[in-house]
Amino acid sequence: MSFIRETRIEANGLRFYLGEVGGPEQPLVLMLHGFPECWASWRFQLPVLAESGYHAVAPDLRGYGGTDAPEGVAAYSQRELVRDVVALIEALGHSEAVLVGHDFGSALAWQVAREHPEKVRGLVALSVPYGGPAPEPPTETMKRRFGDHFFYMLYFQQPDIPERELAADVSDSLRRIFHGLSAHADMNQVFAPRRDGGFLDTMPRPAEQPHWMREVDLAYYVSRFREHGFTGPLNWYRALDLHWRQTRRDRHWRITPPTIFIAGRQDPVIALNRKALERMPEYLDDHRGTWLLDDCGHWTQMEQPAQVTSLLMGFMETRERERAAASS
């Protein structure tokens, strides 16, 4: 990845650390990662985007890696995160971007497209479908759905306890998470009903690293979390109800920019969000397709990089042709 520039830029009052290829004279692709990740989750897509003439930028998002991590849950409200993305687009020298998001980055990309469609030329969402407005705070829905059984998002609402678990052995934690939510894990084991314990208790340690997460790759992630910790990333979960309160009176929930959606068939997030996946097309004005990839769990762009990159590039090329036709 030596040709990828690792740089810093200021936006929305924060210093963002990012991986970047290309420059502001080229169309911008802004790539938003999920939990527990960093900019390097897009390492398979960045080279192809560079070769194809795009300005591709993958930041460590607020609270992650080398980017500033302000204190307090309120600093991670969806409104602040949306402001981050809009400010990044402008700080990078553009008026708009194609957004590519995975996991929490996908949820964020949906909200940017909903609130600022003029900034989004297109949206490629991975793993997290768009389900429109929620009728009640997310944690209330989780409590009703899972009762007194363990659910990781509710576990993450606690102060300090998840941080201590994940930080006790960062290498072991990340090794288990990347394996435990991949296509090669036993989802029946990971999501077996239980009443207590920690996040990692049902995620066995893999015998070896998969080809898409080599030891050298894992070591890079480990270095980011050892240096900066887990509180910022976990605050994204702790701000879920705050986001609901901030947006509950909003009336506009449709997504107008062109979209595609990609996920793994073995992704537990899809298993948990089947209803959102089914009703997603109701809220999308220009949806170009949904793909569920075989032999693919949660880490979509890493587990099946060739398929994801091909779908992404096809979408990008179509948008460029449409842009050229509109300006001619």
Structure description:
The protein has 328 residues and is an alpha/beta fold. The protein has a single domain, classed as Rossmann fold. Helices cover 41% and strands 16% of the residues. Strands 1-2-4-3-5-6-7-8 form an eight-stranded mixed sheet, with helices on both faces. Strand 5, helix 3 and strand 6 (120-126) form a beta-alpha-beta unit. The longest helix is centred in the C-terminal third of the chain and has 23 residues, at 305-327. The chain is globular, with a radius of gyration of 19 Å. The mean pLDDT is 95.
Strand and helix map with partners:
Elements (H helix, E strand, L loop, with lengths): L4 E7 L2 E8 L6 E5 L13 H6 L3 E5 L18 H14 L5 E6 L1 H12 L4 E7 L11 H9 L5 H4 L5 H7 L2 H11 L6 H4 L24 H14 L2 H8 L1 H8 L11 E6 L3 H5 L1 H6 L7 E7 L6 H4 L1 H23 L1
Parallel strand pairs: 3-4, 3-5, 5-6, 6-7, 7-8
Antiparallel strand pairs: 1-2, 2-4
Helix pairs in contact: 2-3, 7-9
List its salient traits.
328 residues, 16% strand, Rossmann fold, alpha/beta, 8 strands
CATH architectural designation: 3-Layer(aba) Sandwich
Query: What's the CATH class, please?
Result: Alpha Beta
Structural class assignment: alpha/beta
Q: Would you list the SSEs in sequence order as H and E?
A: EEEHEHEHEHHHHHHHHEHHEHH
CATH level 3 topology:
Rossmann fold
Largest sheet: 8 strands, mixed
Mean pLDDT: 95
Distance between the termini: 37 Å
The unreliable regions are none
As laid out across the biggest beta sheet, the strand order is 1-2-4-3-5-6-7-8
Which descriptor suits the 3D outline? globular
- How many individual β-strands? 8
Strand content: 15-25%
Which superfamily, in CATH terms, is the homologous superfamily?
Alpha/Beta hydrolase fold, catalytic domain
